[in-house]
Amino acid sequence: MTHRRLSRRGFLNLGGTSLAGFALAANARAQDADFKSKDPDLVVFNAKVYTVDTRAPRAEAFAVKNGRFVAVGTTAEIRGLIGKKTQSFDAQQMTIVPGFIDTHNHGGGEGLLYNVLVGNPFEVEFVTIQSIIDKLRERAAITPPGAWVEGYFHDDTKLKDKRPLNAQDLDKVSAVHPVCVHHRGGHTGFYNSKAYAMAGVTKATPNPFGGTYDKDAKGELNGRVTDRAMQVLNKVGERVTYDPAVKEKRVFDGVGYMSKTFARYGLTSVHHDEVGVLPAMQEQRKAGGLVHRVSYEPTGDLLEAMIKNGVESGFGDEFIQLGATSEHTADGSFSERTMAISKPYKDISPPYQGNVTESQEDLNAWCERVHRAGIRMNCHANGDVAIDHVLTAYERAMKLYPRPDTRPKITHCSLTPPALIARMKAINAVPAEFSTYSYYNSDKFHFYGEEFMEHMTAFRSLIDAGIVPAAGSDFSPGPFSPLMAIQGMVTRTGWNGETWGANQKITREEALRVNTINGAYNSLEENIKGSITPGKLADFVVLADDPMTIAADKIKDIKIFRTVMGGRTTYQG
Q1: Residue 207: domain span
Q2: pLDDT tens, 236-286?
Q3: Which residues make beta-bridge pairs with 159?
Q4: DSSP assignment, residue 336?
Q5: What is the number of helices (H) and of strands (E) in the chain?
Q6: Residue 15 has pLDDT above 90, yes or no
Q7: For a 10 Å CB count at each end of the chain, is N or C smaller?
Q8: Residue 207: DSSP 8-state
């Protein structure tokens, strides 16, 4: 697949007809034999370095020049390179690992700064239904009647009340505003009676394709709406709009806030799956406020412009590039129990097997179109039924238009029995697996049961099959802490002490790879990032404790002492 670079200004004008590009060098540069005559910019020594480079997995020190690692070795070897202008850092036996990479994230930041947050975005925290009502009432008091009042980051299994939020609860917020509480998973919403009435939805309204209007035991609408059924309600009512300059400032601030938050958790590269933030990323980059690398996953107008102008995945530079497409949704949610599975969900009557959200015919056509254009396919597929549909579409597109090393991406790829894994291996599909779910969402796994969980987020099975799974937090649906992710992958034990799918545990070393080099492989960047190797970008994280030796249930609590991108400190704890 051709990789081309576009200027920052060009990124903002992808609808134009004149696009200049040239090949992006991807091979790691060999360590300079004449290096000792050139002062490095930075030398780090006296450290426990896990390089994630199989040729030299452990080191004590390394040197950085012009944003890249140029030498890796022992403290004695590397200290000898210090020159008059070299900055040096004695790590005092702290642990250093490559910068963490998240291969699926919706974190634009604007919502975190300006929306009503009814749950904790980053950690396990239980809240009350009354606290949700109170927060929404405050917003309703300053919102015009008929306009939406909305809450975000709701987690239905993190309620102290030990019962679901319902329409009657949200009727207490307002009778003159449509009200919606969005589940952090993004595939369900909880609505009040006013929202139903404005949309003309009653208990007699049939479920649309790919969604449901849920009901209580008496057959009345209970407030919960899933997947494509939400579109019917969301299109009514008014939403607060902003002057273009105000909106631009909100998005700009959100990108800067999110980037700093990523650095605080040790992330140096993130695959972004949110619409409309690319211009703000470019502006934050120019202002020095973008402190992580971006693989931006296009959809909508941007994807159409790429197809029209012959712009392929990989277009950009080492800071911001266009990656695979945004996740093209084939089914529902793991955490919200709407993903399309081959057996009915436990304890749901009438029998329910989740939501398929696109027909096989339409999925085939979409995959063929983007693959033919040289843009990497990426579909959201959680359940085994949906993964089967996606693989069918991928196999068809790749047969019709053979291309070398395309690495079609499957976002989430949650339920993978052996037959599906074999098909994934055959086309070298790259799954972006939920990273923090084993810890954060363990309270939801009983909805599936151990039989299903033995094949869910199946890191062990995928790695054993020769597949390269990466960490994809899916934030906001899941927290994005890489250390929380590593702990969950190693233990398969959640915050509540429950262990599910223990057969899918992986080693600490493998979990570190999943969160670093595998993430680079996911975007065809393993030659420039993902390990502490001479020639690669100098992205690394300094940890206050060693994730390879600390008690497994303490990994998530390790302090991030420093995050560094391209030799530049982006976070100091």
Answers
A1: 144-235
A2: 999 988 999 999 999 999 999 999 999 999 999 999 999 999 999 999 999
A3: 127
A4: T
A5: 19, 25
A6: no
A7: C
A8: P
Token pair of 229 as six digits: 């059924």
For residue 507, tell me if it sits in a domain: no
Q: How many domains does the chain have?
A: 1
pTM: 0.91
> Which pLDDT score is estimated for 38?
72
Looking at the domain assignment, is residue 506 inside a domain? no
Tokens of 313: 């995945």
b/e 45-81 (16+ beta carbons within 10 angstroms → b): bebbbbbbbeeeeebbbbbbbeebbbbbbebebbbeb
pLDDT for the residue 1:
39
Q: Tens of pLDDT along 424-483?
A: 999 999 999 999 999 999 999 999 999 999 999 999 999 999 999 999 999 999 999 999
The Cα–Cα gap between 459 and 462 comes to 5
Q: Report the distance separating Cα 499 and Cα 484, nearest Å.
A: 15
Does residue 31 form part of some domain? no
Separation of alpha carbons 312 and 306, rounded Å: 7
Quote the CA–CA distance of 91 and 544 in Å, as a whole number.
10
Angle at 107 between CA 105 and CA 112, to 5 degrees: 150
Copy the structure tokens of residue 219. 């057959």
Long-range contacts of 3-6 (CB under 8 A, 24+ apart): 3/312, 3/314, 3/315, 3/524, 4/311, 4/312, 4/314, 4/315, 5/315, 5/316, 5/317, 6/311, 6/315, 6/316
| Domain contains 345 | no
pLDDT at 19 over 70: no
Residue 498 in 3-state DSSP? coil
Which alpha helices (H) appear in 172-238, and where do they start and end?
Answer: 193-199, 230-234
